[in-house]
Every structure is written in structure tokens, then in C-alpha cells.
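Appendix B, example 12.
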Amino acid sequence: MIHDDTLDRTTSGSGLVSNFTFDEISHLDAGYFFYKSKSTVRVPSLNKVLEEINNKNKSINIELKPNKGLEKINVDKIVDEIKNFSLENIFFSSFDLESCIYLKEKLPNALCGFLNDDFSKITLKDTTDICKKYDFFSCGTDLESFSDAVVNELTNRDILVTVYSGKNIPIKEAQNLWEKKVMSVFVDDPTNYIDYF
């Protein structure tokens, strides 16, 4: 479970994640990025995270990364990893349309959301049509691309809207988004959200 295509930003390693085994990655420091000092935090396996989610009765969004030609293998491996877990608390999302489509072929009942942060490349209408055609339950966009037109178009077609940002979304801004029918916001540091709820 790692966010970026490369190890450089969030671990003490360097290079493409796909060029390393999990055993190699599991020895890297994955806490320095967040704590700005040496740590014992390690990259967890998907299985370990799913066990934790299951034990705590929580939900998880697994973002399917466009792994440079390995997208189908990525989906196949994830599907294999989750076979012992209920889909009830798992949903998926991706900027990579082919990964989303392939996931729905493999797991037709899975909840999958399409991510689009550039409506000049795939228009809002096309995004909505894609979500309906492939039964994607949500569409996520970044805060900079979000607008009333985006949320109205999608929610009018029964597509849930999620919003993320490269920076933490302040709680007041999140409240404004929720009032506009945004279903969820993605944040790096949920501390203020925990206090709020």
C-alpha cells in the first residue's frame, strides 16, 4: 500500500515501486516524510491493511494506480488479495479508466469511482456518461477542478462526488463542500476532522 508510482517522496527509497519486491519496500522508512525524522514506520501490505479494516469495521478506498503498462496485472493482484474479504467495506477509485473498467469486469458488484482532475481532457458530460456506462458509483475531482456545475451534473445523474486536494482541506472548506452535496473529502491529516466529528 503506497500512494506514489515512485518510492522517492514518501519513503527512504528511490525509484519505481514496480521495480521492487514487497520485501525490499517493507524495509524502507515510510514515516520520515510525515514526521521529518527517522522512524520505524513501514509500508504495509494490502492484506495487513484489510485485516485491520475488517477488525475495526471500517471502510477503505483502494486507488488503482496506473502502473506504466502493469495496470491489468495490478488489478488481478488486488482482486486476488481481497478474495478473503467482503466487498462491503471496500471501494476502488482510479484516474486510469482502463483499470476501472477492468476491475468492474472482474468484480461487477464492486464499487468503483472514476477520478478526473482535468475536464478539458475528458469533459464533464463525457465523464458523467462514462460513469453511467460502466456503473461507476462516484466521480472524484480535485478541489481546483470542483465547481457547482460539476457537483450538479454528477449528482443529477445519481453519481456521488468526492473531492481531494494536494493540500489538506480545511474543515470549514469541507463543510462548504458537504453542503453542496459532496459525499466525501480526502485529506492527509484527519486530526481536525476527528475533533469535528
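DSSP finds nine helices and six strands in the chain. The mean pLDDT is 92.
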